[in-house]
Amino acid sequence: MAEHDEGRDTVTGPRGSELVRYLRTETVGGTLLLAAAAIALIWVNSPWVDAYTNLRDFQIGPHALHLDLSVGTWAQDGLLAVFFFVAGLELKRELVVGELADRKKALLPIIAACGGVIVPAIIAASIGWGTPGMDRGWAIPVATDIAFALGVLALTGSRIPASARVFLLSLAVVDDLLAIALIAILFTASIAALWLAGAAACLIVYAFAQHRRVTTPFLYVPIALLTWYCLHEAGIHPTIAGVALGLLTRVKTDPDEENSPAARLEHRIQPISAGLCVPLFALFASGVPLDGGVLSGLLSDPVSLAVIAGLLIGKPVGIFGISWLTIKLGIAEKPRSLEFRDMFALSVLGGIGFTVSLLVADLALAGIGDGSEAETAKAAVLISSVAASLIGSALLLRRGRVHAARL
């Protein structure tokens, strides 16, 4: 059990380095994330683009286990799972002992996420109707990028109530789970039932070990890795393993405990996630070429217009519209201290598609034409996400000044 003297940390024992504690601040994590994305964009549009693509596409991993994946895929499916685990821990804490412990408050981000998936999909399908690839391309703008959205909120929304982060985190997690489910339905030819059963068995063992108060990492680390591998082999996006394991981690403390397992794990893993995993993911996911051909097609190509409208119009309308309606009808409660204008600013951040949107663009438009369709759609995702970041940031800064003036 941790001690309470000056040289100790209340969760992890001996106090870590200044760098580790610095990485626990969300502003730093958000800065590293955005810096990595900027580096990728500059790199891939520079004369050294071949070095970038060779590194991103370099295959690594054991072939016998079907894990000879590219570095970019490892960043997307492996490193991002660590971030999803931290997000799952935070969500579990809020659902059990935090603001979302109240059913009506927990219901709001779930309903908001559904609105943020359905409305963009309808708008994208309507605009791109009949265009090659849009039979599945309508799913491109349905996802909110958790890492980028929270990074922008950390940088520009520090003055608005803390419940804003809980609302955005919750709806983004649910949003991404729905998007991953769509990927499984639309782009998975078949799901390996035995591997899926294996993943379920791993999760059951993990939950049982938590219930029995087992603490050794020599059990939990192999279970986590095996869960990830089973989902990968089942044909399901393996980052869902991170969310599932996070949600199964115990967040309530026992009488003889100073901190719960969730608190200890979050304290230890969050700096790794913020300082290494998410920036590396952003570095390999943000490498979208923005040459003249791609940019010229943005405002004329039906697919890119569908993506832009879905993210910049569909997301805010879907998230905020359904939230406002459910609150007015008394179905759900508005987060503590948040006003509707705050919620609208957060809804705009929902238009930061990025991660899953780029993945869906690759899957939906692979083999369409000469390949430029996919690049144009990915550029539309990137530009829309940047626009949503800037607009959302401006709204959050304005709302922050309003809240600060009331203090």
Percent strand equals under 5%
| Rg computed from alpha carbons, rounded to a whole number of angstroms | 21 Å
Q: SSE string, helix = H, strand = E? A: EEHHHEEHHHHHHHHHHHHHH
Measured between the Cα atoms of the first and last residue, the distance is: 38 Å
Low-confidence stretches: 1-16
Shape: globular
What's the average pLDDT? 84
CATH architecture: Up-down Bundle
By CATH, the superfamily comes out as: Na+/H+ antiporter like domain
Computed structural class: mainly alpha
Query: How many alpha or pi helices?
Result: 17
- The CATH topology name reads Na+/H+ antiporter like fold
Number of domains: 1
Secondary structure: helix percent: 55-70%
Q: In CATH, what is the class?
A: Mainly Alpha
What does this structure look like?
The chain has one domain (22-188, 236-405): Up-down Bundle (Na+/H+ antiporter like fold). Helices cover 69% and strands 2% of the residues. The protein contains 17 helices and four strands. The strands form two sheets. Strands 1-2 form a two-stranded antiparallel ribbon. Strands 3-4 form a two-stranded antiparallel sheet. Helix 4 (71-96) packs antiparallel against helix 12 (261-285). The longest helix is centred in the C-terminal third of the chain and has 34 residues, at 372-405.
Label this structure with key terms.
single chain, 407 residues, mainly alpha, Na+/H+ antiporter like fold, two-stranded antiparallel ribbon, 17 helices, 4 strands, 69% helix, 2% strand, disordered N terminus
Task: Give a nutshell description of this structure.
By secondary structure, the chain is mainly alpha-helical. Helices cover 69% and strands 2% of the residues.
